[in-house]
Amino acid sequence: MPTNGRYIGEMSEAVSAELRAELARRKIPVRTMASLTGIPLSTLQRTLNAQRAVDVEDLNEFCTFLDIETSELIARATLVARAAQKNIEQNNRRNQVRAVGGIR
Q1: With b meaning 16 or more CB within 10 Å and e meaning fewer, what string describes 26-37?
Q2: What is the span of the domain harbouring residue 42?
Q3: Most buried among 16, 24, 27, 80, using CB within 10 Å?
Q4: Burial, 54: exposed, middle or buried (Cβ in 10 Å; 0-12, 13-18, 19+)?
Q5: Pick from 68, 54, 53: which is nearest to 23 by CA?
Q6: Chain mean pLDDT for the chain
Q7: pLDDT tens digits, residue range 79-102?
Q8: Structural domains counted in the chain
Q9: Are the C-beta atoms of 60 and 53 separated by less than 8 Å?
Q10: Residue 4 covered by a domain
């Protein structure tokens, strides 16, 4: 169960991945972001590791710190989540075909 008691879905995971990627691109240490945003390091780490659902207020703070529009980050995360869902669906279809003896 997530530490903030909320469901962690594909979108939260994708937003977390996009935040990690943005920090990596800019070579910003997580500790630096935590100290400059005032968000506790443990909260930031759990968010970035998709161990807690992304809080909208925190997301706004992250994006302000990174000087990117929240909508831009959400749009990127949406593309990632949709691609992941498409891969899951394709794998499920392949597995169903295998389960019925390789019918094509």
Answers
A1: eeeebeebbeee
A2: 10-99
A3: 16
A4: buried
A5: 68
A6: 87
A7: 988 888 887 777 777 777 777 665
A8: 1
A9: no
A10: no
Structure confidence at residue 45 as a pLDDT band (50, 70, 90): very high
Instruction: Determine, yes or no, domain membership for 57.
Output: yes
Q: Look up the CATH number of the domain holding residue 74.
A: 1.10.260.40
pLDDT at 91: 75
- Alpha-carbon gap, residue 27 to 49, rounded angstroms: 17
In a domain, 3, yes or no: no
Q: How many CB atoms lie within 10 A of CB 103?
A: 8
Q: Supply the pTM of this predicted model.
A: 0.76
As a whole number of angstroms, the longest Cα–Cα distance in the chain is: 57
Of the chain, the end-to-end C-alpha distance in Å amounts to: 39
Sequence length of the chain is: 104
Token couple for 88: 């899951």
Of 51, 46, 50, the C-alpha closest to 13 is 50
* Domain-embedded: residue 82: yes
